[in-house]
């Protein structure tokens, strides 16, 4: 399952990148920190947590970006006795569509909407539970405040993913949660 998800993710990245290779793309690096907030049925299983990660992006034009994201969250679930008993890794590719508005003193406001998909991996520290990998998708909204090549960035994501409790006799379901990301963006020129 893990190999299948990674293969699908790599194929999607190549499919997006091939039509773009002939265009002049501007790369961006976007480190972030944030909050993971379980919603719906996930609130009964997981606790809120911090989130760390990085995005790489290519600016196709000022209003369209192709992105890849990796994040890690040291989580606490509610069914084992360990503290920080679970690491959740997320890998995805996506796109952002936005606007650019000039502000005073060279600042630019760049609100955006995003959409993407990839995989999520649950790595339990308790040896009784197996590592699991599931498909995932997201929708996002956010903004950047950019001055020259540096930007302050805020993003909120609603994530949708497969999940199955590692406790015996559970079935897989589609779940959701939210993440709020704060970071910087460096626009290479």
Quickly describe the structure.
This protein has one helix and nine strands, in the order αβββββββββ. It has one domain (2-187): Porin (Beta Barrel).
Overview of the molecule:
- The chain is mainly β and 189 residues long.
- It has one domain: Porin (Beta Barrel), CATH 2.40.160.20.
- 10% of the residues lie in helices and 61% in strands.
- The chain contains 1 helix and 9 strands; from the N terminus they run αβββββββββ.
- The protein has one helix spanning 2-20; strands at 26-38, 49-61, 64-75, 86-98, 101-102, 107-124, 132-147, 150-163, 173-187.
- It has an 8-stranded antiparallel β-barrel with strand order 1-2-3-4-6-7-8-9.
- A hairpin with a 2-residue loop joins β7 and β8 (150-163).
Oligomeric status: single chain
Radius of gyration: 18 Å
Give a count of the beta strands, DSSP E runs of length 2 or more: 9
Helix content: 10-25%
- Give the low-confidence spans: none
Broad structural category:
mainly beta
Determine the CATH topology.
Porin
Strand line-up of the largest beta sheet: 1-2-3-4-6-7-8-9
Please report the first level of CATH classification, the CATH class. Mainly Beta
Question: What letter string, H or E per element, gives the SSE order?
Answer: HEEEEEEEEE
* First and last CA, distance: 39 Å
> What is the mean pLDDT?
85
Strand count, sense and barrel status of the largest sheet are: 8 strands, antiparallel, barrel
């Amino acid at each position: 399952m893990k190999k299948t998800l990674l293969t699908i993710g790599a194929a999607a990245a190549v499919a997006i990148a091939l039509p773009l290779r002939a265009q002049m793309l501007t790369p961006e690096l976007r480190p972030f920190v944030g909050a993971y907030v379980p919603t719906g049925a996930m609130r009964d299983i997981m606790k809120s947590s911090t989130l760390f990660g990085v995005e790489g992006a290519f600016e196709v034009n000022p209003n369209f970006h192709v992105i890849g994201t990796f994040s890690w969250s040291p989580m606490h679930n509610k069914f084992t006795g360990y503290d920080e008993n679970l690491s959740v890794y997320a890998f995805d590719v996506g796109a952002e569509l936005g606007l650019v508005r000039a502000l005073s003193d060279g600042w630019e406001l760049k609100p955006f909407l995003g959409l993407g998909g990839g995989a999520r991996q649950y790595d339990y520290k308790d040896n009784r539970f197996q590592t699991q990998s599931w498909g995932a998708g997201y929708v996002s909204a956010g903004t950047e405040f950019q001055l020259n090549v540096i930007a302050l960035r805020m993003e909120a994501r609603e994530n949708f993913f497969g999940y199955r409790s590692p406790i015996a006799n559970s079935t897989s379901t589609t779940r959701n949660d939210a993440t709020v990301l704060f970071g910087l963006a460096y626009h290479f020129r």
